[in-house]
Amino acid sequence: MKNKIKKCLFPAAGYGTRFLPATKAIPKEMLPVLTKPLLQYGVEEAIEAGLNTMAIVTGRGKRAIEDHFDISYELEHQIKDTSKEHYLTEIRDVITNCTFSYTRQIEMKGLGHAILSGETLIGEEPFAVILADDLCDNDGDAVLTQMIRLYEKYSCSIVAVEEIPMKDTNKYGVIAGDTISHPELDSGSLVRVNDMVEKPDPKDAPSNLAIIGRYILTPDIFDILRNTKPGKGAEIQITDALLEQAKNGNVIAYKFEGKRFDCGSVDGFVEAINYFYTKE
Question: Each residue of 8-41: b (16+ CB within 10 Å) or e?
């Protein structure tokens, strides 16, 4: 396929203030759910979806991310031929099966700005975005795999959404639009987006369908972001840029199959740990 998606962008420059003091020196993306950091779960999801190039937008104090996705020769030597060697099998496979590139977001100006900061790593091609603190799991295809399948059919930007309580709309980007019928999906699973609002008050929300941390974006998003003025919170919002695409019918929202944990909050992080511990 001419526009086959090969790259996944991981915005990972945030401060993780809700997890202070733990995140004072440890990137929030490296917080472990059981024995594996959040970011590794995201990278493994991208690999499962057939992507082999990981583009990571970092910031100050994030060196641990680069070190994690690299060989530790001293550690490898210490546990070689011991009963502990198998603990590194998963991360070795990750390092072997994909490449990593990094750039820094110098100023924290919102998710839209973080994605724009990754342009030099992506180039002029469609790409996926995973926010590592939205940890997803299911028994079938991973969320990103499901979304790439839709991109191959519709060739436009795709955002993952889930239904949330109306009282929580002020925490998310919220979409509205018209249902698209799809022979292999439940009714209402696909929506052609015609409106989206960043963190609206419940009384102003166009629906209860909230965008979560999985996107497929077409490369024109970069030019749109360059011309997007700061919005909610004086930040450059990806929601505002996607709305420009949506005005031309070029954004589809997908109610994905699977379970999602908001590991950007302490409650969601603990819920994820309990879930994966029980599952093992």
Answer: bbbbbbbebeebeeebeebbbbbbebeeebbbbb
Q: Give CA–CA dist 55/105, Å, rounded.
A: 13
Q: Is residue 195 part of a domain?
A: yes
Nearest Cα residue to 118 out of 129, 99, 103: 103
| Res. 185: pLDDT tops 80 | no
2 lies in a domain? no
The whole-number average pLDDT for the span 103-121 is 92
CB 125 within 8 A of CB 116: no
Cα Rg of the chain (Å, integer): 19
The first and second tokens of residue 66, run together, are: 């680069």
Residue 63 is part of which domain span? Answer: 7-279
**16 in any annotated domain:** yes
Quick one: angle between helices 143-154 and 38-48, nearest 10? 40
Nearest CA among 269, 1, 26, 270 for reference residue 133: 269
**Burial of residue 123 (number of CB atoms within 10 Å: 0-12, 13-18, 19+):** exposed
* Residue 50 belongs to a domain: yes
pTM value > 0.90? yes
- Which CATH number is 58's domain given? 3.90.550.10
Distance between CA atoms of 226 and 89, rounded to whole angstroms? Answer: 41
E strand segments, 1-142? 7-11, 32-33, 36-37, 53-58, 99-104, 127-130, 134-137
Q: How does DSSP classify residue 247?
A: T
Neighbours of 236 (CB within 10 A): 21
Confidence of residue 120 (pLDDT cuts 50, 70, 90): very high
Tens digit of each residue's pLDDT (9 = 90 or more) over 214-271: 999 999 999 999 999 887 778 899 999 999 999 999 999 999 999 999 999 999 999 9
